[in-house]
């Protein structure tokens, strides 16, 4: 068929509609003869269209000025034929486009998994180079989309063959193109998407991917810890990571995000497995929290060394009654007043309450140890402590002052175990 004859497409469409009105007379010999002749014409048209499209991509489009316009007209004729003609035309075109790809990447060198990125570079370059030429196809044909579908299927077949012949673990960093194609080329109503077309061939090897994710997370955690800096006080026995909360928060958020993104809809098996792991994970991090609290309490204790020594030098044997606070009590109060609000900013309420309780218990135990040699006087102190100390420990968190922030109950409760006896 010559190109000018593609201009007869509207006439062909009219004849096609006219024939549909004679379907009720298909038993009439004359009608049957005319319809058979029309079918023969359709076969001839199909053959000519396929022949003309076979020259696309051979350089003919640059040699003949009207070539692309004529092929655009031919697309209208194809739409006037049966839907199968359009499907076959697009399928043949995509197969021709991928012939060179198949030949290039079937070789021993480029077929390796570490060359997979070059496969993706090939299809991206092909789409970009031919973008203007492929505009001859109507948008409803979805030619770039269908070309990528065939490309992905062919790639999966080749990768499956490569994986089956591997004697070592594969590198699985090959999912980016799938995600990009799904975002850039997905067609509403097309009934197909790119998710999993290529990556499905890696399913038997997913343990390698899990190991890669774990390695990446651990490297990220190590990097954050190495970047952490802190000032060490002279004589201090505890080094505190000032941004440890950010370290755990960032790594856990990243891990949770990655897990969430890989959970398929309806993944009840994964949910069940995750539910079983939930208790174990909570136990692990509860142990971390407990250890961190113990470390912080110990850090607070080390700041009291001078005050504790001063307490042991008090002439307890000469005291007869309970009195007001001594200098060492005021010193401890000053330390706690400066330290506790800083630590509170990093804690959730229930953890902070636990920290206060642990601090109270630790100070109380230190006092008992210091006073154990002064038993008679200690009995009198113990009675006084029992009435005043317990109820105020956790009460710190509710002591707010509208004008100046927190008010500190150390003098009336938290430090009750440290009240001394005066004449």
UniProtKB/TrEMBL annotation:
UniProt cross-references to InterPro entries, sorted A to Z: Vps53 (IPR039766), Vps53_N (IPR007234)
GO biological process: retrograde transport, endosome to Golgi
Pfam assignment, any one: Vps53_N
Domain of life: Eukaryota
Transmembrane segments: none
Domain Vps53 N-terminal: 11-228
Recorded GO CC terms: cytosol; GARP complex
Record's protein name: Vacuolar protein sorting-associated protein 53 A
Biological source species: Sesamum radiatum (Black benniseed)
């Amino acid at each position: 068929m010559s190109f000018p004859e593609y201009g007869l497409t509207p006439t062909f469409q009219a004849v096609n509609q006219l024939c549909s009105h004679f379907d009720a007379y298909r038993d009439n010999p004359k009608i049957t003869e005319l319809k058979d002749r029309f079918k023969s014409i359709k076969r001839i048209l199909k053959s000519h269209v396929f022949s003309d499209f076979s020259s696309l991509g051979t350089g003919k489009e640059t040699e003949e000025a009207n070539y692309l316009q004529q092929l655009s007209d031919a697309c209208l004729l194809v739409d006037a034929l049966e839907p199968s003609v359009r499907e076959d035309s697009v399928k043949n075109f995509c197969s021709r486009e991928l012939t060179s790809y198949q030949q290039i990447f079937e070789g021993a060198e480029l077929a390796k998994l570490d060359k997979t990125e070059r496969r993706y570079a090939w299809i991206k370059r092909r789409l970009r180079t031919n973008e203007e030429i492929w505009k001859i196809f109507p948008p409803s044909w979805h030619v770039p989309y269908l070309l990528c579908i065939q490309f992905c299927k062919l790639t999966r077949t080749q990768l499956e063959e490569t994986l089956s012949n591997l004697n070592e673990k594969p590198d699985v960093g090959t999912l980016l193109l799938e995600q990009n194609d799904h975002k850039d080329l997905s067609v509403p109503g097309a009934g197909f998407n790119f998710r999993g077309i290529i990556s499905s061939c890696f399913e038997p090897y997913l343990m390698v991917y899990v190991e890669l994710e774990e390695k990446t997370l651990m490297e990220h955690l190590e990097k954050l810890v190495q970047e952490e800096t802190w000032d060490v006080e002279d004589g201090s026995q505890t080094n505190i990571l000032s941004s440890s909360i950010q370290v755990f928060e960032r790594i856990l958020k990243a891990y949770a995000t990655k897990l969430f993104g890989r959970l398929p809809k309806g993944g009840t098996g994964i949910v069940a497995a995750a539910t079983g792991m939930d208790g174990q994970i909570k136990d692990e991090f509860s142990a971390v929290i407990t250890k961190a609290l113990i470390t912080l309490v110990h850090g607070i204790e080390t700041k009291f060394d001078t005050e504790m020594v001063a307490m042991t030098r008090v002439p307890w044997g000469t005291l007869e009654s309970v009195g007001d606070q001594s200098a060492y009590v005021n010193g401890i109060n000053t330390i706690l007043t400066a330290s506790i609000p800083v630590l509170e900013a990093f804690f959730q309420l229930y953890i902070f309450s636990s920290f206060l309780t642990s601090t109270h218990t630790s100070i109380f135990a230190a006092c008992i140890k210091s006073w154990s040699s002064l038993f008679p006087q200690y009995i009198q102190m113990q009675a006084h402590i029992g009435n005043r100390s317990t109820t105020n420990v956790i009460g710190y968190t509710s002591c707010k002052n509208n004008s100046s922030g927190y008010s500190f109950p150390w003098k009336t409760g938290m430090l009750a175990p440290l009240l001394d006896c005066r004449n």
